[in-house]
Amino acid sequence: MVHDPFVVVKTTHFTVTYTLGLDDDAATIEDVDAIIRAPDGKRWSASLMTLRYIAEVMDRRSTTGETAGGLYLQIPDLVIVREGGLDAMTRALVDLFGTFGMNTDVLPRLTDDDEEEVAEED
Length: 122
Prior knowledge:
Blueprint: E1 6-10, E2 15-19, E3 31-37, E4 43-50, H1 51-64, H2 66-70, E5 78-81, H3 86-100, E6 109-110, H4 112-121
Parallel strand pairs: 4-5
Antiparallel strand pairs: 1-2, 2-3, 3-4, 4-6
């Protein structure tokens, strides 16, 4: 069976497209990138991670020397979740946008220019 890396979840107010790796399990994933799209075409990016996974990344970087030996983790669109899985991550995004609305800049907003820059880098 072929694994589709894109999982689309529709909510009442937006659609989320998650990008999963080949070995990722949607029920337990702890680190995933997502694009949130409103019905009017507005889009945002999000990197969702569990606390446990953040600790794992920082511990690993303390041995590799990255980010000042694991002193910090900087991700502009980070949303930290207490539990893994796309269900929990979707609930977090629903609450986030429910709190801040669909005209928010609480997460980085994507524009068509962002897509053109990515295409040029490839």
